[in-house]
Specification:
single chain, alpha+beta, BirA Bifunctional Protein, domain 2, Rossmann fold, 2 domains, 5-stranded mixed sheet, 15 helices, 37% helix, elongated, binds zinc ion
Amino acid sequence: MGKEPKPQVKKMQKGAKPYTFSTVEGMADILPRDQDWWKLVLQLGNATSELHDFNFIETPLIEEAGMFEEGAGIAKEFVEKHLFLLKTGGKERVALSFCPKVSVLRSYLEHRLAYFASPLKAFYMLPVLKKTRTKEGLRESHEWGFQIIGEGDPIYDGEIILAISDFLKGLKLKQLMLKINSGGCRVCRPAFRQKIKAYYRNEQERLCKTCERNLETNVFALLHCEEAECREVMAGAPIILDYLCQNCNNHFKSVLELVEDNEIAYEPDAHLLPINDYGMRTIFELYVPELRLPIASGCRFDYLAEIFGARVTPTVNGTLNIERVIEAMKLQGIAPHPRTKPKVFFVVLGDQAKKGALRLMNKLRSSGVAVVEVVGKKTLKAQLKSAERMNISLALLLGQKEIFEGTVIVRDMTSGAQETILAEKLVEEVKRRITK
Ligand SMILES: [Zn+2]
Ligand SMILES: [Zn+2]
């Protein structure tokens, strides 16, 4: 990457209104200087989705707020704190895209997508908007998600993990570590919840204020507390694996076998548990050593459909946080191939030549030749200088005289040699020269 360009600040005229708008705190523009990373991620995401047979889906940026709130259950407080509610003129309560996997399930049920494919394998690239303290990360981030709906077989949990792992390996990310656990189910989780509650009640005086408050309402949240004393208490807490029912146990074993068979590095993480009511069985996160937060995560959440008023519908999802993936690539020194540099530069002199130039440029572009120009620059010298700076080997010159004669001047930028050719032969001639 070259030097950062200086921001363009114009001298303010007396009495003029100062320019005041900027991105809202926690939001970020994705700028051209990062395009090589973004394009690579998006291209690889599409290629991986196609190879693994996932179908594209996109849900709207605005959804009913209740959809995110009702599903949350014990995580209600978390959702209320982070949901971006919108003020509208009407009675409806709406919120910004908060959890795409929930929206995708809503779409599946609403459009009866079970008739389209069973199971439905869907992928999406959607923004997520969360009210959050900015030191915890951006308020807006982008998720690339894979979701399989309609089948509870552990092979689908494995497929999700494999798709994500292939995606990240395709980006050349190294030292990936999968942390994985089972969150149990309705049969086995309540007993475990009672056990862990009883354990924490015994240690109550050692807990921080937040943990003390969460103890009765959302005891699993205590496993994520970062206070030193709470972490010590956590080390001795009972683990869910000792309480899984037979079905959950078999499911977890099968998923681990699939992970092992496919040589994905993993370690079980007993403290990884769903913080909502609808998560069950498989739950995972993927890390690289350079980042504290996971670059991808996923879970199974068969119960959410029921909360929405439908039948229990097996659903498993895995999601990459694109911003963190790109950060990890940069930290690991992975440079994407820059896009292929255009080989042809069009120099246009005089207003009359512009129209003819656009027609010729378009002809070249339609035949697959990338062309650049800076026709806003008036002089020949300034335009040629730009071509030099961009390291372009071939320049085409068009002025009033050439328009009149139906010709174009072809200039070899290295040797400076020029030749006049017929405009109708242009595409043929340019292709011959740039493939030489
Ligand atoms: Zn169970
Ligand atoms: Zn605590």
